[in-house]
# Entry
Amino acid sequence: MNDRLFVSLILTVLLSFWLSLTTILGQQEFRADMNASIQQPICVQLSGNYSAGVFFTNRTTMGVQYPITVMTVLNNATGNYNGTSFGTTYYVQACAGNTIDVKVAHCACENLLCRSGDCAVGTDRLYVAYAADGGVGWANGTTPTFSVHSPPDTTNYYFQAVDDYQPIAGNLTPNSYIYMRYWIDPRPNSAPSGVYNTTFKIRAVEVFSSFGTCSC
Amino acid sequence: MKSKVKMFILIFILSIFPSVQSMDGVGIGISTYYINITGSVLDYYTSVVRLTNPSIYEVKAKVYFDCKDCTEDVKIFGHKIGEKTIDYRSFFTIDKQDITINPSTMGSDAPAVKITFSPKFILKNYLKLYTPEFFNFFVKVFNKKYENYIAIPYYSLFIGQKSFKGLLVADVYASSFGEMGVTPSVGSTIEINASGMPMMSFIILCIFFALFAYFIYTKITQHKKGKHN
# Structure
């Protein structure tokens, strides 16, 4: 009799545990939804030229893309000075409806890969990260005509790697803008003739959040 | 006179062309910048966020969770041999991964994404083990896309507490704007604090199992002895 009692007790405990487990795993109907909808928006918008992409041209021509022929200097992006009063046409706007400040970063998905021409398609590349022979650099400002005309330094204002978010604006208040200029000093200098391209991302998060991982 | 008017119109169009080019492009937003969910395996919550589109173009966006703390290094004698990753879907799920957002959609008409928080008692994990170079060579003969590791799924009980952070990300990947060279993306922080089975409950459960096993064992041995006699 004692044995039966003991077994019954243990089986009851195990059964009740098993039942509670299957209830948890099975999502039974008797649990009520607690539903929350929050409005603390975060939003950004790019300029039209920025959305289209950053197209590099030679040192002297703005607005239209020409082949780069000098490989040892900083070559402009077409929109660097193509706006009103020679301002840049690349910008990110924190939406007016934001209720928080945001920070913004950019990330190159890949080095610029050869797509056509004499270069080996998909293999030859122009590196975005800085080294002694060049890279892709940038500068930022709060007005389109900001007076910075080359990357201010080689550590913070050149892409450091691909698939890596690099901050371009630390604190954008609602309805404010960050304006960008880009340059390429093609690397390697001996890159074969051809068309090279890649895509990149702009990510905005709340100022105290991390940018996360860049996966294109 | 007509030719002068035509010339004027042409010059006017050309003069506004650069400013047209610099008009607003593609954008995206999320209706909340922070989501904090605290609960246990017995809970079931939903939270609805909306994806907004400030631009005049329709956009298509990928929605996913980019976890910051889900992956830990696996080391043997201080040498990293792999990584273990908790599948966040053991804690919460996102009901849509691909969303189309109409132009200028900022309010309650914006498409909704439902986050369902319902931690499982049995968690799914992945163990990613890096394979040695000599092994990678042979595998790449058959599969050029092999990424030098093997991922093994495994399951574990959710005992104690688990906290992790990450971003609910909305990435634009296509738009009626046309071909995009630069795509916008926004992230909303998700912070999860979940409680599993308390350690003491687990210990009591183990004791019950042990007692039951012991009882069965003694019964079997008694039965065998009885038969023998």
Observations:
- The CA atoms of residues 12 and 210 of chain A lie 49 Å apart.
- Chain A touches chain B through 63 residues (CB under 8 Å).
- The radius of gyration of chain A is 27 Å.
- Residues 22-29 of chain A have pLDDT under 50 and may be disordered.
